[in-house]
Each structure stands twice: as C-alpha cells, then as structure tokens.
Design a protein that fits this description.
Keywords: Cell cycle, Cell division, Centromere, Chromosome, Coiled coil, Cytoplasm, Cytoskeleton, Kinetochore, Meiosis, Mitosis, Nucleus, Phosphoprotein. InterPro entries: Kinetochore_Nuf2_N (IPR005549), Nuf2_DHR10-like (IPR041112), Nuf2_N_sf (IPR038275). The chain is an all-alpha fold. The protein has helices spanning about 10-20, 30, 35-50, 55-65, 75-95, 105, 110-130, 135-235, 245-390, 395-440. The longest helix is centred in the last third of the chain and has 149 residues, at about 245-390.
C-alpha cells in the first residue's frame, strides 16, 4: 500500500524549473531516466544547500571513523556511502518524506524521484516563506558570531603580546642580573683601585718629600764643593813648607774629598732611585686615569641599569594591564557564549513549537481531506442514484423532480458545510501564523 504524503506532487516542468532556479545542474533526461550517478550528486547539492554539509565535511565525518574501523582504506567508499545515506535519510525525515530507502540511491525510480523532488521543492518554498520570521534571530546569531570571532582574535593577539612581554621580561631580568653582577665586580674592583690609589698617592708624596730633601742636600753639597775649591785655591796660595803639617793637611783634605765623593755617589744612587720612582708614578698616574675612565663607564652602566629598571617596571604594569584585559575578554566571551547558547535554545524551541503546530495543522488537513473524500463518495453515490432515476424519468417524472430538488438542497448544504470547514481551516492557519509571529517577537 502506497504511503500518503502531506505535500502535493509537482509536475515535471515545474520540478525542472525549480531545480534550475536553485542553481543545480539537472536535465530532463536524468529526471525521466534516473540513474545512481545522476541522483547522488543531486542529493549532495541538496545537503550542501539546506544543511550546509559539503563534500569536504562529509569526508571529515568519514575520516573521523578511521581510528575505530579496521581496514579503513578498503571500506572507505562503503563507509562514505553509508554516512551519506544516514544523513540524507535524516534530511528526508525532516522534510516529511518518511519512506526514503537505499533503493532510491542505488536504483532510483522515475515516479519516486519526482515525488522526492516535489518534497524537497515544497520544503524549499516553505523554508523561504518562513525564513523572514527568523531573520532577527539569524542576524543576532551572526552578530554574536562576528563579535565572538573579533574577541577571540583580540584574545589571541593579547596572548601573543603577553607571551612576548614575558619573554622580554625574562631577557631583561637576565640582562639586569648580569649587569648587577658585573657592577658588583666593578664596584669591588673600584674599591680596591681606590685603596691602591690612596697607597700610591701616599708613597708618591713621601717620595716627593725625599726628592726635595735630596735636592736641598745636593745643592748643599754643590755649595760645599764650591767653597772647598775656593779654600783649595786659597791653600795653594799659602803652601806650607813644613812636611809634617803638609802631610796632616793633605790627609785631612783627602779625607774630606773621600767623604765628599762617597756623599756624591750616594746622591747619584738616590737620584737614580728617584728617577725610577718618578717613572713608576707616571705609570701609576696612567693606571689612575684608566681607573677613572672605567669608573665613568660604570656610572654609564648604572644609568642604563636604572633605565632598564624603569622599563621593566613599565613592562610589568603593561603585563598586569594585559592580564586584566584578558580576564575581561574571557568573561565577555563567556557571556557571549551564554547568550549564543540561549539564542540557539530559543531558536530550537521555536522550531520545535513550529514543527508541532505544523504537524497539528497537517493532521487537521488530513482529517479535512478524509471528510472531503467521504463527502465526495456520498456525492458520487447520489449522482449514480440520479442517473438511475433519469433512466426511469418517463415513469416517475414527478418523483425524480422532487428527489432532484432534495439532492440539490443536500449538495448546497454540503457545499456550505465545506465552505464553513474551509473558512475554519483558513482562520485556524491565520491564527497559527499570528501565534507564531507573536511568539517570535
């Protein structure tokens, strides 16, 4: 027994026109002589158009079964066909075509294909008519998705900045630690150099004092030698003729000369020592200048250290601010996700309510069709009776006239009843649409 469907069957020309309007390539020959190779791509286009399931999405669903299925490469095509059939069957159930079978894919029949395409086209028309009722929800959903995408991109950007700041912070801390260690070493070296400088200055002052004393003594010796030479010249003028006295004076003079010579040798030695110490002092003075230059470099490094410390503090504040912004963005993201979830739940609830009301309306239409069928059968019976009475018109003309009037009155009452039922149905559908609009708003 053929299953009854709630949608009207469309004509061949109308089906081809609607499919062409959807932008799907499908010829009249493929509709009249359908094959599996022709209908499977057509159904794939329907899934892509109405469910957003592309061939790539289908491959991803099949590939997700790779870990749970043995010999995946061998049965890949069979798995793909099975998954495709399951999704397509679910789609057919949703558009009220409940007797879709695998034969419709493998060995499609012309009449069933025409019926299936009628179901899809009627669903597309109904979807297009009802789509305006959900425009606000769709726009809100798209707006929320765009906001979520933007916030997610900002969150990733901030995370990258935080990671970069943390890396810079670690590098700055390592550089600061190295600078602190180097500054500590240089500070200790400066303290030692300062101590050595003070010792060298003390030694230098002592040597200068000794040099000045030696210069004074040297001048004294020179003056003494000059006076001695003068005395010798005086003595030469007054030569002593007594040998004993002469020998005594000679001995005294020799002794004085030897003493002067020894003093001169000592003075020469001290002068050489002083020259050596002066050279050492000059070298020490060069070392002191180098130490002063190192000290200036240390001061520059200390300034750099202070600048790096200020920069580190600024980066730390920036990192803290970024963390605060990150937490705010995460909180905002959770709020948006909750709003999106609530909107989706509301949309699903509205769709479920709409489906229930549509099912009720379809059931009512089925009942009306059954009643109309019964009325039509009764009308056919009356017509048959009328034909029999027309055959006997010569015998019972008056009786036939009366029955004809009675039949016409019954037909008019039936027509009026049908019109009433039709007006009730239209009123019910209008009330249903108004309730749907009020529930959506």
């Amino acid at each position: 027994m053929a299953r009854k469907h709630t949608f009207p069957s469309l004509k061949r020309a109308e089906i081809l026109e609607c499919i062409d309007g959807l932008g799907i390539p499908f010829t009249a020959k493929e509709l009249d002589q359908p094959t599996s190779k022709a209908v499977i791509p057509l159904y794939e286009e329907f899934l892509d158009l109405f469910m957003g399931l592309t061939r790539q999405n289908l491959e991803e669903k099949v590939n997700s079964l790779q870990d749970s299925v043995e010999n995946f490469e061998i049965i890949h095509e069979s798995l793909r066909f099975t998954v495709f059939y399951q999704i397509l069957s679910q789609f057919m159930q949703n558009i009220c075509f409940h007797d879709f079978t695998i034969q419709d894919l493998l060995k499609p029949d012309r009449n069933r294909l025409q019926l299936i395409l009628s179901a899809v086209i009627n669903f597309a028309k109904l979807r297009e008519e009802r789509l305006q009722q959900f425009d606000d929800d769709i726009q809100k959903r798209e707006s929320l998705l765009e906001t979520y995408t933007l916030l997610d991109a900002q969150r990733k950007d901030l995370e990258e900045k935080v990671l970069l700041s943390q890396d810079r912070k670690l590098e700055s801390e390592a550089i600061i630690k190295q600078n602190e260690e180097r500054n500590e070493e240089m500070f200790q070296s400066l303290i030692e150099d300062k101590r050595l400088c003070s010792q060298v200055r003390t030694e230098y002052d002592r040597i200068r004092m000794e040099a000045s004393e030696l210069k004074i003594r040297y001048h004294n010796v020179d003056s003494l030698m000059a006076s001695t030479l003068e005395e010798i010249e005086k003595l030469q003028s007054s030569i002593v003729h007594s040998p004993e006295k002469l020998k005594g004076k000679i001995a005294d003079t020799s002794l004085r000369i030897q003493n002067d010579r020894s003093q001169q040798v000592e003075l020469d030695k001290k002068s050489k020592i002083l020259h050596t110490k002066l050279n050492s002092l000059q070298l020490i003075e060069g070392d002191l200048n180098a130490c002063l230059k190192v000290l200036e470099e240390c001061l520059v490094e200390l300034d750099k250290l202070e600048h790096a410390t200020v920069l580190l503090s600024t980066n730390q504040e920036l990192c803290d601010q970024i963390e605060i912004n990150k937490k705010k963005l995460e909180f905002r993201k959770e709020q948006l996700l909750k709003q999106l979830s609530n909107a989706q739940e509301k949309l699903e609830h509205e769709q479920h309510s709409r489906n229930q009301k549509l099912e009720a309306a379809k059931q009512r239409m089925d009942n009306i069709r059954e009643e109309y069928k019964v009325i039509t059968q009764e009308r056919n019976k009356k017509i048959q009776e009328t034909e029999k009475k027309n055959a006997m018109i010569e015998m019972t003309e008056q009786k036939i006239a009366g029955m004809r009037e009675e039949l016409e009155s019954q037909i008019s009452s039936i027509t009026m009843e049908f019109e009433k039922l039709k007006s009730h149905v239209e009123l019910y559908i209008a009330e249903l649409l108004r309730n749907l609009r009020s529930s959506n708003s």
